Amino acid sequence: xxxxxxxxxxxxxxxxxxxxxxxxxxxxxxxxxxxxxxxxxxxxxxxxxxxxxxxxxxxxxxxxxxxxxxxxxxxxxxxxxxxxxxxxxxxxxxxxxxxxxxxxxxxxxxxxxxxxxxxxxxxxxxxxxxxxxxxxxxxxxxxxxxxxxxxxxxxxxxxxxxxxxxxxxxxxxxxxxxxxxxxxxxxxxxxxxxxxxxxxxxxxxxxxxxxxxxxxxxxxxxxxxxxxxxxxxxxxxxxxxxxxxxxxxxxxxxxxxxxxxxxxxxxxxxxxxxxxxxxxxxxxxxxxxxxxxxxxxxxxxxxxxxxxxxxxxxxxxxxxxxxxxxxxxxxxxxxxxxxxxxxxxxxx
Length: 348
Description:
This protein is α/β, with parallel strands linked by helices and 348 residues long.
């Protein structure tokens, strides 16, 4: 029987429509700018986000890496949240590729607010590295998929620009944020100099991310993509699936959010589990084991044996991510198994 895979929304399989589009895609050499399907994807992404241009890249890590490089020079600082993806899950590319120091700001909810950012801005000095970039994340993965309040995002962007800084938005799941707010995604991208978003997470494409921004920035970004090994030649085969994800799959995201809420509300009643339902805004559920009878890796292993796949982060924290390959019935069944195992552990 197929497991209920809640490890991430990256595990989705391409739909039949995607497979047909990939098989029939018109292609050319994208390094020469001649792949018509890639070009169409990039034009459409720029249009949807209200930006001048876009660049198709293999991964979100590459998109964020390129963006940091665009906005900084070696020996500068990048401000971000202390649990941000660019800091913890991208192999220190901010340092390795861009030669920059991260100035991490702890937050209770993953949301960087302007007063906290303003306090950490460093002007040019003979003693410290100057700040060049503010990097934000929407939705915030390790804060449980929480969404930036629009007024907070606008204030940070305006404040950063007034200080001569640039703003990059890691919007890997920004379409989830747009579904939460019930607004066009361009409204959540306004104010950011660049935005990276993933086609292969909630939108369900098999591979790929897109970086959007100004035309001159994207021309430079194309060179950085080549330096990073991201020149993919006949990439229209991949872009074809990305186009379907971009055009059709955002409408399905509210169902994923509802399934995450169902999962969270069900497990919240289990002994030894703590879940902050206020943070369950999109398709991610973080929950903590508080009883001490079982660790997160142990629970994850027991769940795997029962056909439910989750991700353990350290000894007490687990994450479940809903996506279009998980039905409402499967989300409910997975939650029931979590409750059963935690209840059994509490009785020992």
